[in-house]
Amino acid sequence: MNYAIETENLSKKYGESFALENVSLHIPCGRIYGLLGRNGAGKTTAMRLILGLAAPTSGRIKLFGRELANSDQSSYLRIGSSIETPGFYPELTAAENLSVFARLRGKVNKKAISQVLDLVGLPQNKKKFAEYSLGMKQRLALARSMMHDPELLILDEPTNGLDPIGIAEMRQLIKTLSCECKKTVLVSSHQLSEIEQLADWIGIIHRGKLLEECSYEELKQKERSGVRICTANRDRVIRFLTEKMGLEKCVILGNNEIEVRDQTCSSLEINKRLFQAGLEVSQIWILHSSLERHFQELTGGEGIA
Ligand SMILES: Nc1ncnc2c1ncn2[C@@H]1O[C@H](COP(=O)(O)OP(=O)(O)OP(=O)(O)O)[C@@H](O)[C@H]1O
């Protein structure tokens, strides 16, 4: 597989603390890669290191298959990014703002500005940036990162602060950029549902460490089901399940609740055996585990968002 970005044991220390510790990322070309983690997990730090905005403490970064070397910054020209809160001039319109940033890059292509504003769905009118809604500001930030038609987009929490409709629109826009414009996208979020609906590849980062990296399909396979039992005889039921039925993965959830994560036995069978043993069950139901629980397990119970 070809990777747009590869990092090898990338670490960043601030004082004595690791913001990022031995993180090896693999972002496949042409895909949407979601970097998922709680606030402070290290997502922005990873992106800043990849973009050369901060120097790693140790580790290596490859962009488009080439090791980043101080003398050669050409790979950065192939990247567009929107990281942290991008600054715009409040008294200028969207097109005027983009024109200023284009000038900083060396050339102003009015057609490209107009095209990119169309692409992100921003009207080309006299409205000033100061009068923009948050959603429009986010779109303009995306437009700015796209102006030079980069192959790779690095977007730090692009849906932050947006309402549900704005989130859905931004998601659709990113998908269009990937599917129709063939861009590689690295996008971060602390929202599990967001990444779940957007990304083809997912990296889960927690306290500076990459806990898991896999395709969306692989992650989906980790969803598993179980059986939840509500009973006043919790301790007797759990003894029966483990000793008499040989079910190993039984977890106490509360005073009256048990979860059987062992999938060797159906809920029907469990119910029947408990009934035959005279153990009263007030409720029993099949549980389809969500990815959220998988993450909770990965992060030692903390969950994602
Ligand atoms: N310049 C800095 N100096 C000191 N500590 C920093 C600096 N930048 C980040 N950190 C610390 O590194 C850790 C990771 O921060 P980072 O911003 O990368 O997390 P994040 O996953 O992007 O979080 P958020 O979703 O809140 O933006 C945090 O503990 C943060 O306080």
Small molecules held by this entry: adenosine-5'-triphosphate
> Runs with pLDDT <50, length 5+?
none
Counting H and I runs of at least 4 residues, what is the number of helices?
10
Compute the CA-based radius of gyration. 24 Å
Question: Structural class from helices and strands?
Answer: alpha/beta
Tally of strands: 15
SSE sequence, one letter per element: EEEEHEEEHHHEHEHEEHEHEEHEH
* Main beta sheet strand tally, sense and closure: 6 strands, mixed
**Main sheet: strand order:** 7-8-9-4-10-11
User: What is the percentage of strand-forming residues?
Assistant: 25-35%
Helix amount, in percent? 25-40%
Choose one word for the global shape: elongated
The span between the termini is 31 Å
How would you state the average pLDDT, rounded?
88
Summarize the structure.
The chain has helices at residues 43-50, 94-105, 110-120, 134-146, 164-179, 192-198, 216-221, 234-244, 267-276, 291-298; strands at 3-14, 17-23, 26-28, 32-36, 58-63, 66-67, 79-82, 152-156, 184-189, 201-206, 209-215, 225-230, 250-252, 257-260, 283-288. The chain is an alpha/beta fold and 305 residues long.
